[in-house]
Amino acid sequence: MSLLGSFLSDEQFQCSICLDVFINPSSTPCGHSFCMACISRYWDGSKICQCPLCKKTFQKRPDLQINRTLREITEQFKSMRGGGGGGGAGSEKKAFGRGVPESFFEELKKKLPRPLPKLPIKRNIEAAADPALLATSVPNQSPLSTMTFPPEPPPPPPPFCRGGGRRRFTVTGAASSDDLPICEIHRRGKMMYCKTDNISICPDCATEDHPDHDTVNIENEWTKTKAQLSVSEQEIQEMIRQRIRKIDSIKTSVTELQLTVEQETAGSVSLFSELVSAIERSQAELMEVMEMSRRAAERQADVMIRQLELEIDELRRRETSLIELSQLDDALHGIKTFTALSGHPPTKDWTGVSVNTELSTGTIYRTLAAQLESFQKELRMAAETGFPASVLGLGPVRAQPRIRRVQEYAVDVTLDYNTAHPRLIVSEDLKSVRCGERHQMLPDNPERFDRVICVLGREMISSGRHYWEVEVGGKTDWDLGVARQSVNRKGKIDVTPTNGYWFLSLRDKNKYAFRTEPSIDVQVSLRPQKIGVFVDYEKGQVSFYNVDSKIHIYTFNNAFGDSIYPFFSPCANKSGKNEGPLIISPVTMTD
Q: Is 425 exposed, middle or buried (0-12, 13-18, 19+ CB in 10 A)?
């Protein structure tokens, strides 16, 4: 084997995984080197990271980096092994059949610490093993080109001294004190580091060129730095843990905010609904009491007037008798008759009598005032501490048992194709409906709506309780509710409870209202994606729920007076802006 083989051999630059020369070599913490791609693939999919050579196990997958020094040497080795041209007049001479140019050894001689004295040819074999003997060579002749070598490879050459050159680079890429670069001026290892100029220097440079600079021993400084690295690593890990905890805290805050919004919404709806109900109830009672008081006063006045009129008639008759008596000439008869007429007829003393004008509304006002006082107290409490579960009458907000109660009356609702407006497209399973761009050719049967873009359900409701849910998604307009069986389905229709329609409407994405006379606007803080409709036929109630947030929206109270059907209207297509369907979805019981 050649001298080059003793310094640079294929085995030293060979990855033990792919058995080829290194490509982007990377060193593991145990000191072995592999191609970056090879060791990455070797560890991919494995729960335990282990060195392929020494089998050392790493608890955490090492963060490997490319060993740049080894990569540079590998690239130089590749160029030396495969470079060079033919033996023309201008070509360089080759050495030992390895394709290594003689200039490489010339550069090697320049980097040796001492000049090369002449060496007899017969000592060439010893020179191959001892660099000291390599210092003697035949003048005017390349010493390496005249050497002969034994067939067996010689042992690895000893390392150069610290002050005279570099130690041979190992395949592992691990650094040691002998791996230090050599100062080109003083030929000593650069074992010092100048913090002022941020460069590595030898001790002589430190004395001559950096006397006032902050210089330290590289190995000692690295030992201190590694201790600081451990502290810094722990600090970074703690900072990471703090930020992970902060992320969890933020997510928890968002979840709690959502629950608070649901609780606040449900509480405010409950509180204000109670207030509105109390005011409406008090107003109705006031109207009734005042009407009753008015009628009682009128009846009392009629009786008193009739009594007074009877007394007036009697007094007038007595007055007439007295006038006639005064015109008589018979004195005796006049005296006798006057005695009978002189007394007043029996009458009632009307001095303290009057019509009762009291309306008896004080009790109602006092009751309403007490309810308003209670409302103000609850309102102040809500402003300070929020709505407790007791205000809702529910328990924990997320449970919302009121919705679960109505979901127990879920029924399977389907669409009646024969009632659909000609622009409506009903799915084959009769569970969804959307509005098309134009009319379809459909028979104009009596059940079909020809002006209002709507469709009825097939299930007739004439008793009991019924519940179904409809997905409204991102639609901008829709109507949902119930309609009386006997409603007019032809021509322009006024869709109000008076005409047999009870439904909730959405217009322009955020305007919710109930089609009453006049319409009732509703503030919905959480936009529903799914609407629940509950009907209690005996009570005459139609209630609407936001299924996703488990919130009651509104309840109609009105006697139906006839059988009713589920009512659906996806509204006009609006050139594709409102083309989404209304979908009757299966009811999933809410926990």
A: middle
What residues does 509 pair with on adjacent strands?
none
Q: What is the distance between the alpha carbons of residues 528 and 550, in angstroms, rounded to a whole number?
A: 10
Residues, the chain: 591
**DSSP string over 72-97:** HHHHHHHHHHH------TTSPPEETT
From the list 24, 23, 29, the residue with the least C-alpha distance to 51 is: 29
The torsion angles phi and psi of 283, rounded to 5 degrees, stand at -60, -45
- For residue 437, give the 3-state DSSP assignment: coil
According to DSSP, the residues that pair with 507 across neighbouring strands are: 511
Cα separation of 180 and 552, whole Å? 79
| DSSP 3-state of 364 | helix
Task: Give me the tens of pLDDT residue by residue for the chain, a chain 591 residues long.
Answer: 344 444 567 777 889 888 888 899 999 999 899 999 999 888 887 778 889 888 888 888 888 888 988 888 888 888 777 644 334 333 343 333 344 455 554 554 454 444 444 444 344 434 444 444 444 444 444 444 444 444 444 444 444 333 344 433 333 333 444 567 899 888 888 889 999 999 999 998 988 889 889 999 988 888 888 888 888 888 899 999 999 999 988 998 888 888 778 777 877 887 787 788 778 878 887 887 888 888 888 888 888 898 899 988 888 887 888 787 778 777 777 777 777 776 677 777 888 788 877 777 777 788 888 888 888 888 887 777 666 544 444 333 333 346 778 888 999 999 999 999 999 999 999 999 999 988 898 888 999 998 899 999 999 999 999 999 999 988 999 999 999 998 989 888 888 888 899 999 999 888 888 877 777 888 776 788 899 999 999 988 999 998 887 888 888 888 888 899 999 999 998 888 888 999 999 998 765
* CA distances for 410 relative to 176, 399, 413, 584, angstroms: 79, 18, 9, 12
Look at the alpha carbons of 261, 262, 266, 267 in this order and tell me if their dihedral is positive or negative. Answer: negative
Cβ contact 391:274 at 8 Å: no
The C-alpha angle 469, 565, 502, rounded to 5 degrees, equals: 80
> Is residue 493 within 8 Å of 458, Cβ to Cβ?
no
Decide if 167 contacts 191 (C-beta within 8 A). Answer: no
The Cα angle at residue 556 between residues 462 and 373, in degrees rounded to 5 = 145
Residues 6+ apart with CB under 8 A from 266: 387, 392, 394, 397, 400, 550, 551, 552
